[in-house]
Specification:
The chain contains three helices and 38 strands.
Length: about 575
């Protein structure tokens, strides 16, 4: 793409100097100057007049196809508008909202050296289905603008008829016709669009316990076996219209090292995993999983036998009646080891949470309007085997649990929990004493983004070539919403993932945060954690959070990305996306 930008820039400059690209300075008194442009297909392709042939947009390839639009009268207003006609949009095979997530428009002006300062332009969708992008006037007396269009993988092909016209003063407003040939490219996986849904939180309720015969017969799940969990019609969940469920799944009493995979009943079991454990461990993890057509999900156990427990904390449903997600950069809200964050009160002195004790976290104080919150909760320095339960402040404590641990363990788990009427969340510790830490990654309220479940999709595995373990004080960027994963690359505001650490050479923790490609951690060690592990341990944890906007940095266009940072030793990292958030 950058080569094409340079070719366009160099050619534009040469044409201007040679006089072949007219300034139209000799105009009649009542005549307005017109736009003038030329295009190229692919990096280094020949230049052509877009009135004579189509501009290629190969789905799944950022090929650098684009156009140079010359301002023949640089001193005048230079606002532009690109419009895809309603008829073309209707014939595209996707809704306008979907097409707006598939087509990326980038522009820059000729005053920037070699066209390196790219700006992403967002589509506006009109009532008749037409789509427009506004390209505002540059402020530095530029002589033109580069326009590039990239497309996500698609099914089939379509010709999109477009019009480019000047909307600012001083130019002839007559539209200039353009045609974009948007076609499928061999070897790419077409983008798939699920049903966006809104979130309904529920007080944590146990739906499955194979030890007690709750929700399934009282028997361990065998090697290669599955247990079916009913979701629809239970714990306040409606019988229909549910797209996904948020469960805290716990594996306990395993006889062998194994993993558990959650997936919609009736669908093919994916290769991804949700929980990893060794013999004798008790391991929880939050799981967001699409619900099968019959309103149930399956939990599969790979090896040995294991008891499984599942507690629901919320579900996603079709329509707009639920809550929407707003992601935030991870921030520590509670740490009972830190007197600055938790100085204590006469009722609840500073220090660890005691046996049968609770601690309250005020969420609404920092995030007004939040009705439910997503936190990474970590138990540290426990003096006994115990569990922690998170629930709305002021409500009766449920029998469900969120974290399970033994003496001396450090155990994290993502928790999505409703906020009490007073805007607070309560944390209960069952036995011994334990330090509790809570880092926020997002919240649900009346505004924000809807959720589209995908089922587990692997987006990272450093064990596979050409990957390598993540080193000490090193970070890596992953783009979960990528063409190659079948997730819309544009318009996605956040994701929920299952991140697994394995083959660690030392006790360490991973920190995940939205990455702009330029900013990231900038050499500063993040002061929060998503996943804690010991040497040789394989452990997973859910990570939910925002993605930044597309931007340009250091000669590269950075897409929405998540940065993962490792603190000690080296470790292999695996990430599986289970869904994404979109604005409608």
């Amino acid at each position: 793409m950058r080569k094409t930008n340079r070719a366009l820039a160099a050619t534009a400059g040469a044409l201007l100097l040679s006089g072949l690209l007219p300034f139209q300075s000799a105009l009649a008194a009542d005549e307005l100057p017109k736009l003038w442009n030329f295009c190229t297909n692919g990096s280094g392709g020949p230049l052509f007049d877009p009135a004579e042939r189509a501009v290629f947009v190969p789905g799944g390839e950022d090929a650098g196809s684009g156009c140079w639009i010359n301002f023949t009268n640089p001193g005048s207003g230079r606002d532009l508008q690109l419009t895809l006609t309603a008829e073309s949009v209707k014939s595209a095979g996707y809704s306008p909202q979907q097409l707006a997530q598939m087509l990326l428009v980038r522009t820059n002006n000729s005053a920037t050296e070699w066209g390196e300062d790219w700006t992403v332009r967002r589509w506006t969708i009109h009532q008749d289905g037409a789509m427009t992008v506004r390209i505002p006037a540059c402020t530095n007396n530029c002589t033109g603008v580069f326009l590039q269009l990239s497309g996500a993988p698609r099914e089939g092909s379509v010709e999109l008829k477009a019009q480019l016209r000047a909307t600012g003063p001083g130019y002839d407003p007559t539209p200039m016709p353009l045609t974009f040939d948007y076609f499928a490219r061999a070897g790419t996986k077409p983008v798939t669009f699920g049903t966006p849904g809104t979130f309904v939180p529920v007080t944590p309720t146990r739906l499955l316990d194979t030890r007690a015969g709750l929700g399934a017969p009282a028997a361990k799940v065998g090697s290669g076996g599955s247990v079916n969990v009913g979701i629809a019609g239970r714990a306040g969940v409606p019988a229909a219209g549910v797209t996904a469920v948020v469960l805290n799944v716990t594996a306990t009493n395993p006889t062998a090292g194994s993993f558990v995979t959650a997936h919609p009943h009736g669908a093919a079991r994916p290769t991804a995993s949700n929980l990893n454990f060794t013999a004798g461990q008790t391991v929880p993890n939050q799981v967001t999983v699409p619900v099968g057509a019959d309103g149930t999900v399956d939990l599969y156990n790979h090896t040995g036998t294991v008891d499984l427990i599942a507690d629901i904390s919320g579900y996603y449903q079709e329509g707009d009646s639920g809550l929407r997600f707003t992601g935030v950069s991870p921030k520590r809200l509670m740490d009972t080891r830190d007197p600055w964050l938790n100085p204590g009160t006469p009722e609840r002195p500073f220090g660890p949470v005691g046996s049968g004790g609770t601690i309250t976290l005020d969420v609404a104080d920092k995030y007004p309007g939040a009705k439910s919150v997503t936190l990474n909760v970590t138990a540290a320095n426990p003096t006994a085997s115990s569990f922690v339960t998170a629930y709305p402040h002021g409500a009766a404590r449920p029998t469900a649990s969120n974290l399970n641990f033994t003496a001396g363990q450090t155990v994290p788990n993502q928790v999505t929990v409703p906020v009490g009427a007073d805007g607070k969340v309560e944390f209960y510790n069952h036995s011994g004493t334990v330090a509790l830490i809570a880092d926020i990654s997002g919240y649900y309220s009346a505004t924000g983004a809807k959720f589209v479940p995908t089922g587990p999709t692997r987006v990272l595995d450093t064990r596979e070539a050409p990957g390598k373990p993540l080193g000490e004080h090193k970070e890596l960027d992953i783009q979960p919403n990528s063409w190659k994963h079948g997730i819309p690359p544009f318009g996605v505001t956040g994701v929920t993932m299952n991140v697994t650490a394995t083959n660690g050479t030392a006790g360490s923790h991973l920190s995940a945060a939205p990455s702009s490609g330029c900013e990231r951690f900038q050499g500063m060690w993040p002061q929060y954690s998503n996943l804690n592990f010991t040497a040789g341990q394989t452990i997973a944890n859910a990570v939910t959070g925002p993605l930044p906007d597309l931007n340009y940095c250091g000669g590269n266009v950075w897409a929405d990305a998540v940065s993962i940072y490792n603190h000690e030793g080296s470790v292999d990292v695996i990430a599986d996306v289970s869904g994404y958030f979109v604005q409608d």
